Amino acid sequence: MMKVIEHEHPLKLVDLQVNVEDVDDKSDDEEEKEKEEDLVPQDEFSCTCKRCDEDINGYYRYYYKCIHDSCDFALHKFCAELPETLKHATHPHPFILRTIDEDWTCVNCLRGHKPGACYECICCYWLRKDVNCVVEVDKRRIYHPSHPHPLVSLCYKPILCQCNACGKEHKGVFFQCTACPNFAIHNDCAFLPKRLLIQHATNAIFSHTHPLTLSYSFPPEEIRAKHNPRCRVCDGNFYYDLDVWIYKCEKCIYYVHLDCATSRRESFMSILSIGPTVKNFKDVDYPNLLRLPFPDETCSIPKHLFFKKLGPGDYGNHEVSVQHMNRQHELILVDTAGSIGSTSSSSKINDMIMCHNPMKKIELLCSGCVRPITEMPFYKCRAKEDESCNFALHEWCTRRLPTKVDNHPGHPRHPLLLMTNIPNMFNIFRCGVCLLDCNGFAYGCVECEFYVDVTCGFMPERITHESHPNHLLSIVKEGQPSGSCLMCRLYVSPYTLNFSCSFCDVYIHPWCALLLPKTIRHPYDKHPMHISYLPIENHKSEYFCEICEEELDPHKCFYHCDECSQSVHSDCAPLILQSETETHSRYRLERGVYRFLNMKFGSIHKKTDGHPHPLTFAQGIESDGGCSVCHWRLRFEMILRCSECEFAVHHDCLENWNKS
């Protein structure tokens, strides 16, 4: 027990670090009971010392409190054990500890104080010092779990120093280790809460289901195991801050910098100026704004722009057959019953045509935009019985595509003309926007040899995207600063068109924004798989792709089924229909989308120089072996394969062969 001059009751000594339970020793039943309580972090002990007006917390370990529980009087152990009389080197007269009944100011630090205990000179009654200015430095110590030695505050006045907790240099009061001269942590960092809800700390600008736990390091092994995660608030990395503290979720792959998690507004900390939940535009100013991603594979930019002008009731007014430009076969309308119509009953074909359906492993791609044909009516080539042609078109790609595009952001100098055939043997071109090979329709400038696919031909100037909600994303012209794509996390070239947020340092590749739908279907999963831009909550284990069976980085966009916990690379998603034959990461460009996303395979080329049999345009597989011309392997490449013999060749080898 202890008596002090400013309190009428005795005080008892309390050890705040005694009987601390190890959470690992808890039983499963106890953990189950805490599941609901886990949503809100438990308050840590904290009170105010009545002498120095500083906080008392568990890091100080010992403190004195009133023996009566109803009384909140408390003192630091070193404050309570101060002598009643002391001599100080800065003054010739002794000081006595006494209680002052009026407001007063310390002559050392010039801080103002309310009535309470202080040291007063026995001769100079006006000369008063607060306990912080006279207490011995060694007694102002804390026992912090981040460091094996006690830490002391060597100087009560603010100093400029590097903080080992947040990794920043700033001015303030620091706790330092006398055994390790290079270790110091700022007062604010030393007493950060061990657990917090980020929505409380950031005014709900950012949110997470579980409380975040303070971690005193982020080991390189954990960084590599979690695929080099970024801070969920500022999107910065942790590469150069391996020894600094972070906040992390124990149940999810969720990591945040100290200053980001606490949103502290000191001059040395980051200030959240405009978060992703704060809208930076008005809908009325952008009535035709394209909001991405599209809901599913049935949607595309051509459909968004042209299908809406045509109601379903108008299909009956269309001619059954049309002669499409530059095509040797007549195109006929496939009606809503799935049968093929024709202008003459004698030429009617009774075959049933099925639309694209991944659940039934049926693939039907439009030969114009190379997007799936998922609904009727659509147009198909009416080939004769001895002919085979997989040419098919959406209704809007057949009739409603404009013949030219003016002022395209990728080539504003000349208009781009609609071209159903590119002047080469296999109608293959490299799109100038998404940089993917394509054998569909193109908008092109023959003079400059600039071509874009139908989707990129109508690339909008501005969009919004779910991955960066509430902020406008605008086309960035060539020569802008480079960065990484928010979706695929890969390099954004300053020499290509990209979408960028003018308020944030955020970039998105056009192919990631325009070509990846919100949901896909998998034949082995009855639920839709939704695109995710971040690791899934309550999923801390490793991720593996169901298509290529390789490890998946959850910090890059991917598709995931919450019900079945199945995941798919975004660039493996179009391979669902080939998952039982041949898949490999080489088909992926490591750019967020499938390498052959704009390629339609299956066409048959009957007349080719150098080989007497028809050749099928396809993806090379292992059994194809080497090219019959250059002898390099055909696997993972665009090839032409003979079904009657073992002849197989790279498409460009055959084209060069025919030119020679």
From TrEMBL:
Cited InterPro entries: C1-like_sf (IPR046349), DC1 (IPR004146), Vacuole_Formation_Reg (IPR053192), Znf_PHD (IPR001965)
Any matching Pfam family: C1_2
Keywords per UniProt: Metal-binding, Repeat, Zinc, Zinc-finger
Ranges of residues in domain Zinc finger PHD-type: 48-110, 162-235, 544-646
MF annotations from Gene Ontology: zinc ion binding
Annotated PANTHER family: CYSTEINE/HISTIDINE-RICH C1 DOMAIN FAMILY PROTEIN, DC1, ZINC FINGER, RING_FYVE_PHD-TYPE-RELATED
Name used for this protein in its record: Chromatin regulator PHD family
Organism listed in the record: Helianthus annuus
